[in-house]
Structure formats: C-alpha cells, structure tokens
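Suppose you are handed a protein chain with no further information: no name, no annotation, nothing but its sequence. What can you learn? This example shows the usual starting point.
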Amino acid sequence: MPIGTLGQMITFSSVLDPDENYSRYIVYKARSGDTIKSIAAARGRPDLAAEILKLNKGAKVLPVVRVHGKIAKRQPGLRSVKQKLREHAALRLPGTLKPGDAFSVTAGENRPKVTAGYAKYDTVDVPNRIGLNRFDGYDPITIDIPIQFENYTGDGGADIEDKIRRLERMAGRGTYPGAAFGPPSVIAVSVTDAHGNIVPLVPASYQWTPSNRNAPQYRITTIAWDDGALSDERGQRIRQTATVTVTQYTPLIVTERSATRRAASRHAGRHHG
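A reasonable first move is to predict its three-dimensional structure. Written in structure tokens, the prediction is:
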C-alpha cells in the first residue's frame, strides 16, 4: 500500500435515502477521546459538526476535573467542536447520522481517480475551414474509489459483512424493503486521518472541506469486487478489496423569479443589445 494511504479511512454516508424515515435527532453515547469533530467525521459528515454543536451547545458533557477524588472544578457547558467529551456522555446527533447510514473502510492500494466530469465540446463544421469548438456543458463528476475491507481479529468477518451490506444498500441492493426499486441513496464521500481531519486522497474539490461547503454529493453506480477475497470458517469475508464508482448527484433545481426581476432582466437585455 502506498505510504500516502496508510491510516486513511474513506467514509460513505447516506445524505438522502428514499426508503428511510429520519427522526429529528438520535442519542449517541460518547466514547473515550471523542470530540464533535471526530464524531461527525467518523459518520462521513464533517460538514455537520457545527449543527451537532448547535444541538448540544451548553450541555454538561465535558469531563469532570477531580483532585484527590473530589470535584475540583464545576463542569462548563459544551462550546467547541474540538472539546473532548466525557465518556458515555449523551449527545444529540441529527437523525440522518444514525449508525446504519454510514461506515468507514480503509483506502485501497491505488488512489481514487476522477474519470469524468470535465468540459464537453462538439465541433461545428465550417466549409473549407477548421471546425469550431462549441462548449456543450459538463458531465457529472465520476470517481473510481478503491477500498479494502480487512479484519482478522475476533469476529472481524461479521464486521466486514455488515459494512458490505451497508455499501450494497447505498447502491440500491440488498434484502431491505424497496431494494432494486427506484433510485438508491444520495451519499457523501470523505477521507479522514486518525484524528478526523480531512485529507485530499479524494481531491478536495470533490469532498466536503471547510473551504468547499457545497461539495458534490453522489450516487453509487458500480461496485467492482476484486478476486482473491479471504474468508473465515463461517464463510464471512475477512479481506475483500473492491472499487466503488460514484457519480455526482445532479437534481433539477428550478429557480423562480418575481415579475419585477423578470422585467429588470428584459430591460438589461435591451440595454446591452
């Protein structure tokens, strides 16, 4: 595996699942060392860190300072996404972040590769001269993302099979009601290091970062499973590599303009004409 991918995790998370009903929020019990920033990153939605803080701002979820077994300092309220949380503290998360809707997997041996999404042109013929290039728009972004499921410890096979089921559901397949009927989930893709920091293994333009808050969202269009998978005695995979192809989700957005703005646009057009 290239040095650049060691310790880096690719997270796939559902943003919109047509077959799912989401509650306003869910309750999450903090683990040792958790911060809001790391929780949001682990669920593939680092962009929601500020929303999680808003849901919990002022909550008494920080560690208690003790000296000789006695409380030495009154616990302050939560005020930052970087503050470490008290283990087992109850935190509210947006309903779209429930555990089944996201998973992380080790980056594969090759870097993700953008295969489509750049400018398109056609050629207008001009008699007896070189044809003219005519800009014809952009294709949706398409990215091939190599991933590697690998877990040889304990019941690692069950953990891998669970993650693969989630991936298949995001692609519209599986045994859940609604499988293979209608479009699959809209997902977000992010890559983080062990501390929840975004890293540009997927180019920064194509995943959420603090400077790219309107990052593309995607649908899975292909999962190419590689040969050479390893299984445990129960037939569960303990090592499986694959390449997931995602294509940018491009919903039709209709912008309505008032009569006043339409009249202003016509006036501007006459003026420039």
